[in-house]
Records
---
Amino acid sequence: MSDKIISKDNIKNWIDALMQSHTVVAPMPRNEAPAEFRELASGDEPIIDGSQTMMSPKDYLLPRYETLFKVNVGKNGTSVESAVPEVRPTVMLGMWLPDAQAIKVLDRVFLDDKFNDPYYAARRENTVLVAVMPAEKRWSWFCNSVDDVEAWKASVDVLMYDIGEKFYVEGQSAKGEEILTGSFFGEPTEADTIARNQVWDKFAKCDKLPFAGKALYENLAWEDPIWDEIAQKCIACGMCSYMCPSCSCFDIQDETCGSCIERYRCRDTCQFDDFTLMGAGHNPRNNQVPRSRQRLLHKFKYQHEQFGVVGCTGCGRCVELCPVNVDIRDVLTRTCSNERAEESVES
Ligand code: SF4
Ligand code: SF4
């Protein structure tokens, strides 16, 4: 794979060229709201600077609300109308690397051999992922404490690094190489390569937290007073999982609309009291303690056991957005610290 550079002035021209053959999805600014990943229209000016958008690329691949099918009831009988989207080849551009890794986590759920989700697959399977590494680190990131971030490069087709007036561009797959053509791209100089390495090191070699490198799936325990502690503070707003780039839970509901019935799915979260409520009224997680435990164990233990991946990429969104300051970094530090391990050995 060959490395290239592209000047920031040329990004718009490159996107225009890509739009001839692909749908291009990228973070678009909105008036008073955070930028959101959506399909670009001609003339749109997306934000391509590698800074983390609060709204993650999940919003495009797994919409917050999605019609699955409609049942039309008419004089001539009943018909079912599929709502599986028809999607052109797509380039998703402008997410940062951990959000691309989070898409790999979603793939394990929705592109499973046994349970392939046609709605997710339609958007995902013909999609080229282009990630951008920002020039500066955000305070809440702890990616290199949860996983080997070097391995995440295999999650994208193209990786770009913000090195000032231009981007350093690496094709990571054959699919990625195919979209790196045209006069927009040039050869990197030695100084560009040094700048690329500096951007990477700021991300990959920043200070690690005390739980880094520990087998989190072994350290997180079912019985732990920390779940009570979180539950005392948590107001079950669901923000941490709604905004998480790798959380995938949804609910399915039916809605009548005149002469049709629409089946749709929408986001759901294990933090809500009715998430595990059964039809007969029993709720196995009937208070916030097991719900708080579920979120952490699912991300760091169950997903690891089921798919061999960690369900958290350390993006820091839940750290920044939780209204009562439940800090996942603190929870992991306390549940996995050496001091704690020693305490449990002594007790
Ligand atoms: S830091 Fe929080 S929001 Fe980000 S991936 Fe991990 S659990 Fe999800
Ligand atoms: S964001 Fe905070 S308060 Fe809201 S559900 Fe998550 S842990 Fe609870």
---
Amino acid sequence: MKIIREVIEELLAISKDNYPLEFVALLRGKKGVIEEYIFLPGTEFGHTSAIFRIDMLPLGQKIHGTFHSHPSTNNHPSQQDLSMFASNGNYHIIAAYPYDMGSWRCYDKLGNEVRIEIIDE
Ligand SMILES: [Zn+2]
């Protein structure tokens, strides 16, 4: 899987702006590339809850996974994160404080770390 540099940079910037609140978004794009993110109406923000309303998603969109921020330096998925991952695609990025290029990781739906390549559009 690949992600466009501008997309991950924007997600990190929004995470920083929302700190200490958690920020969540869905990741979408064409096959093999995360090209954009979507905020969903009805998404709840909070330290312990990142709840997606997948029923609010327009039909026909290819969802690769999720992005969310943690208000700490821990970028590992919680049990709650894993249950959210399971039904929202197979690539899940968690960004931790201070939300720079070195503080995020990507996981598959089971919580195993996976590598994502950053590409320039
Ligand atoms: Zn989390």
